[in-house]
Write a structure and sequence with these properties.
about 60% helix; globular; 2 strands; mainly alpha; single chain
Amino acid sequence: MPEPTPFAQTLARMPELGSKVHLPDPGLTLKPTWHPQNDAIEARLAVDDRPYVLAHFRSEKATAAYLGQRVPAYGGLCYPHAKADRIYSVMRMMNAGTLMDDAFTPLELSADQRPRDELLRHYLDALEGILPPASAPLPRLLFDTLPPIQAQLAQKPRVWERMKAGIRSQLVRMADPLAYQMDTLTLDGYMDLRRDNAFGEYLTMLTEYALDVDMTDALAEDASLRAVRTAAMDAVILVNDFFSFRKEVPAMDSLNAMWVLMREEGRDLQQAVYRLAALCARNEQALIRSRDEVLAGPLGQRPDVRAYVRELEYISSGNAEWCVITRRYHLSDQRFVSGEVTIAAAPTLDDIAAADARAA
């Protein structure tokens, strides 16, 4: 297998550090709302999950930086109507998933598949209820998070099996990094692969768990319902790529629709930014149209389907709101939607941990 490149080999005009670009407001219209228990559960998880984060990074500073990103708040925004006895597990799954990404990402730029395979094995063990070793604290977090979810889904076994299958697919995809394919992927191909790799299945399956509904048959039967679900997944991919690309230049992260647009359509960075903003808005309108089709059709008479469709809207609006408030994408606690930005070096969590270790 060839050595993966940090960006597509044929990509011209890759932005340099210090270059400036204007981020327009994508003009999204769906409004976010917070789960009423968000603040309390964020505070609990900052305590409960800190040991796993610290054991992984072995750095107080990197642990503090991660906790400052407010990752569990993503769940408070995307599942505002989650049942009271499920929102803790939902928000904890945000930590489990994000840290999964943080565990695999540093391994993407190596041609050595063995570390990825080992990490994948520990995660798959966790998924099957097998305790990973103490040397794998992030798979242990998944191991400790899943049992309450499985127990609560005992009466909806199809949802649990689909959730397991989605997590498994996500893990397998992450262990086979898309960095190897970024020179050839079209935008459609990128979106198709990222629906797994970027937590699309993971997040939409959690909607069913959060609301205690089973959409297995409805999704199989109704194309409009599947379209709402797909648009919610695509909102996560497109909007996250729109707000995160600035940090991915210094981090040498090749997984962003921005780079695909620059290569495939021959755009410079500013043109690609405007194009991606337009795609974000277009996808939201597709979600709204499909939602209205579902609500106006036979399935729209079912309370469980109506609740599910409405909550999928919050994956879109909640994801967008989290993207403008998190330190994961902005080196500030101030809400940022649009304006001129500078492509600047920003240390990753692993960089912070390495610097902390050198200073010790």
